[in-house]
Amino acid sequence: MTHIVCPHCTGVNRVPDERLADGPRCGKCGKPLFEGQPVDLTAASFRQHLERSGLPLVVDFWATWCGPCKTMAPAFAEAAARLEPRVRLGKVDTEAQQAIAGQYGIRSIPTLILFRDGREIARQAGAMNTNGIVQWVEQSVGT
Predict the structure, then answer these.
(1) Is the pLDDT of residue 143 over 80?
(2) Is 9 a catalytic residue?
(3) Is 66 one of the catalytic residues?
(4) Which phi and psi (to 5°) does residue 108 adopt?
(5) Is residue 26, in this structure, part of any structural domain at all?
(6) CATH label of the domain that carries residue 54
């Protein structure tokens, strides 16, 4: 069983590993647990996904005024579609969530951080294309 945090209501769901790719739905709100899109993370939802999910979490730290962030956004979304349900991808707006950005020492954006079991295991600064993101994640996670 893997714990999956719902991207809509942040409820925690237990899903059998062999059923992750079968389109599971949240037991609390009934919405899909995976939609092939990055999850917009707030302070509360970030903590929930970081601490309660059994999936690796890749977070894109970005800002609306950042040109390279805007350029990378479609690639990050496409990477989410390719990596789910093995990995959850999320986005943290560093302007709206300054405390999270400060906690992780974000000095340049975009910055990707890969978390597993609540701990940072890899970091990559700078814009990347879809294949680069997928390859970096797969190498870092070991899939």
Answers:
(1) no
(2) no
(3) yes
(4) -140, 150
(5) no
(6) 3.40.30.10
Q: DSSP string of the chain?
A: -EEEE-TTT--EEEE-GGGGGG--B-TTT--BS--SSPEE--HHHHHHHHHH-SS-EEEEEE-TT-HHHHHHHHHHHHHHHHHTTTSEEEEEETTTTHHHHHHTT--SSSEEEEEETTEEEEEEES---HHHHHHHHHHHHT-
Question: Is 29 inside a domain boundary?
Answer: no
- Whether the ω angle into residue 68 lies within 30 degrees of 0, i.e. cis, is no
Cβ(101)–Cβ(110) below 8 Å: no
Number of structural domains, the chain? 1
Q: Which amino acid is at 58?
A: V
9 within some domain: no
Find the domain containing 66 and state its range. Answer: 35-141
Question: What pLDDT does 90 receive?
Answer: 98
- What number is the average pLDDT over the span 73-77? 98
Selection from 50, 130, 125 nearest residue 88 by Cα: 50
Catalytic residue among 6, 9, 26, 69: 69
| Signed CA dihedral, 62, 68, 74, 77: sign only | negative
